[in-house]
């Protein structure tokens, strides 16, 4: 008998159907990955299994069989007896999933108290053991710290510690590594694998990352529009997908598709960075975020800066775009004027398409704002330019009257790119511009960027921690670690013949990477 068997699950939000007869199963000790785009229903399915749907959601039909019991009919009080003790949850966002006013130790200890442990010494000992078990150094210190004092990877380890505190039979991991650097992601997934082997725990892994799913699961469940479109063993489904949607997902995943390297030309440099340094003051101590960085970007090509969080890549990008002054060093951008007119030459596209657009403005107003700011054209000319930009980024003309909240993440990022192109810049600085997007939407944006580069001769400085994406989009790469560039070269050279140990570590962490 399966550990978990879901039969014909149906869920609606405010009366609108969201899940349509979802069925899947998980065997003891097995990893089942549920994959699909945003809106496919994968997270709704995961939350429905343990009664954590939002207030406007209704479980309309279906059975959730776990250990011989049908959880679908259980009250919240009965479900609390299962959550934690039998089924553990690792949520997606560690920043929002931990209480900011409670110490890490107190939050893990609460899991034990809720399920009957009353001995304070026993709770403390177990908390310290759990923190050590998930690989956090100096558990005594970590237990006394608050979430904001920990890195993203450390916070995710705390959530895993809480999820395994009572050694549950099933862990539901909802996008547990989507916000993490590639090396931290690998460590977290290795940890989950180790715990699964030690405790025999089964894992239901919810993810939009096909590379992670391919490398870490026994079986795949592919969802689209609230339905399961295909499922089977991971090896079998990767080798011979039946559905066109599955084939598209696999083709769009950078870590699974063997696209040729982009070869750089020998043009004049559009960006020249020499000996760049940026110091910050943390308390009374100076902190050097960027330490002697130098690189060049040939006109009409894409240069990627890659590295983990804290490597200095975003600080470098902000200095190139003149959003932060360097402590020392020089940045030369061919043809760029000084002063305010610099913005016509260099534009920045941010990581988060949800936070970078003014929610009070229409899409037309957002795209047209740079034109108004620089006094370019009369009203009629600006309206024509907005229509041209929407067409160039493959958005229908009618979206100009909508607000950002009415668009998907991919559509919003297209709007952000259209806004950046409005004043006809020659250089775009793209700061993690596709990291928040699903694999299919990500592929669409990358194709758009490549097409725009060909058509307009744009030069890109591309900031990313995702080496699978970098392999696809960039001509040249600089690898950053602790504020310094440790390796630079063509993308083909860096990926095929890495010289630095840190580069090799990053490449080894790409899920199911293409060699």
Describe it.
It is a single chain. Helix content is 36%, strand content 26%. The protein is built from 19 helices and 19 strands. The longest helix is centred in the middle third of the chain and has 18 residues. With 515 residues, it is an alpha/beta fold. It has a 6-stranded mixed β-sheet, with helices on both faces. The protein has a 6-stranded mixed β-sheet with strand order 15-16-17-13-18-19, with helices on both faces.
The percent range for helix content is: 25-40%
Structural class designation:
alpha/beta
* Major sheet strand order: 6-7-8-3-9-10
Count of distinct strands? 19
Specify the biggest β-sheet: 6 strands, mixed
Query: Could you give the distance between the termini?
Result: 40 Å
Strand content: 25-35%
Give the mean pLDDT. Answer: 89
Relevant terms:
alpha/beta; 6-stranded mixed beta sheet; ABC_transp_ATP-bind; ATP binding; ATP hydrolysis activity; transport; Oligopep_ABC_C
């Amino acid at each position: 008998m399966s550990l978990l068997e879901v039969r014909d699950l149906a869920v609606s939000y405010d009366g609108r159907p969201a899940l349509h007869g979802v069925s899947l199963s998980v065997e003891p000790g097995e990893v089942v990955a549920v994959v699909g785009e945003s809106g496919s229903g994968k997270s709704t399915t995961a939350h429905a299994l343990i009664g954590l749907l939002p207030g406007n959601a209704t479980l309309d039909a279906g059975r959730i069989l776990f250990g011989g019991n049908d959880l679908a009919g259980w009250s919240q009080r009965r479900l609390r007896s299962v959550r934690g003790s039998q089924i553990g949850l690792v949520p997606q966002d560690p920043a929002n999933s931990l209480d900011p006013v409670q110490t890490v130790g107190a939050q893990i200890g609460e899991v034990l108290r809720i399920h009957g442990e009353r001995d304070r010494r026993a709770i403390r000992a177990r908390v310290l053991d759990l923190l050590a078990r998930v690989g956090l150094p100096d558990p005594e210190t970590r237990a006394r710290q608050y979430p904001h004092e920990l890195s993203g990877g450390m916070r995710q380890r705390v959530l895993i510690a809480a999820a395994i505190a009572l050694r549950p039979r099933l862990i539901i991991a909802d996008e547990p590594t989507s916000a993490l650097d590639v090396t931290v992601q690998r460590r977290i997934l290795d940890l989950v694998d180790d715990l699964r082997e030690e405790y025999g725990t089964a894992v239901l892994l919810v993810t939009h990352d096909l590379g992670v799913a391919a490398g870490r699961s026994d079986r795949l469940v592919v969802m689209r529009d609230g339905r399961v479109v295909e499922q089977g063993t991971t090896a079998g489904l990767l080798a011979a997908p039946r559905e066109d949607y599955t084939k598209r997902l696999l083709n769009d995943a950078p870590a699974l598709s063997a696209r040729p390297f982009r070869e750089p030309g020998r043009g004049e440099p559009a960006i020249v960075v020499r000996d760049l340094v940026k110091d910050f003051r943390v308390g009374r101590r100076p902190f050097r975020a960027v330490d002697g960085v130098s690189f060049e970007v040939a006109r009409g090509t894409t240069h990627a800066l890659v590295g983990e969080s804290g490597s200095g890549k975003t600080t470098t990008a902000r200095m190139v775009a003149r959003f932060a002054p360097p402590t020392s060093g020089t940045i030369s951008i061919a043809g760029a004027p000084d002063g305010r007119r610099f913005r016509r030459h260099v534009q920045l596209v941010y990581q988060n398409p949800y936070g970078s657009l003014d929610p009070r403005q229409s899409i037309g107003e957002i795209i047209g704002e740079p034109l108004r700011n620089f006094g370019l054209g009369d009203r009629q000319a600006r309206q024509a330019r907005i229509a041209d930009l929407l067409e160039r980024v493959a958005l229908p003309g009618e979206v100009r009257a909508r607000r950002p909240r009415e668009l998907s993440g991919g559509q919003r990022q297209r709007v952000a790119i259209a806004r950046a192109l409005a004043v006809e810049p020659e250089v775009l600085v793209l700061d993690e511009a596709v990291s928040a997007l699903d694999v299919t939407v990500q592929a669409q944006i990358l194709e758009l960027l490549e097409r725009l580069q060909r058509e307009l001769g744009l030069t890109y400085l591309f900031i990313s921690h995702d080496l699978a994406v970098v392999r696809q989009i960039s001509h040249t790469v600089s690898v950053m670690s602790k504020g310094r560039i440790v390796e630079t070269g063509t993308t083909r050279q860096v990926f095929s013949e890495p010289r630095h140990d840190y580069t090799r570590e990053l490449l080894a962490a790409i899920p199911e990477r293409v060699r």
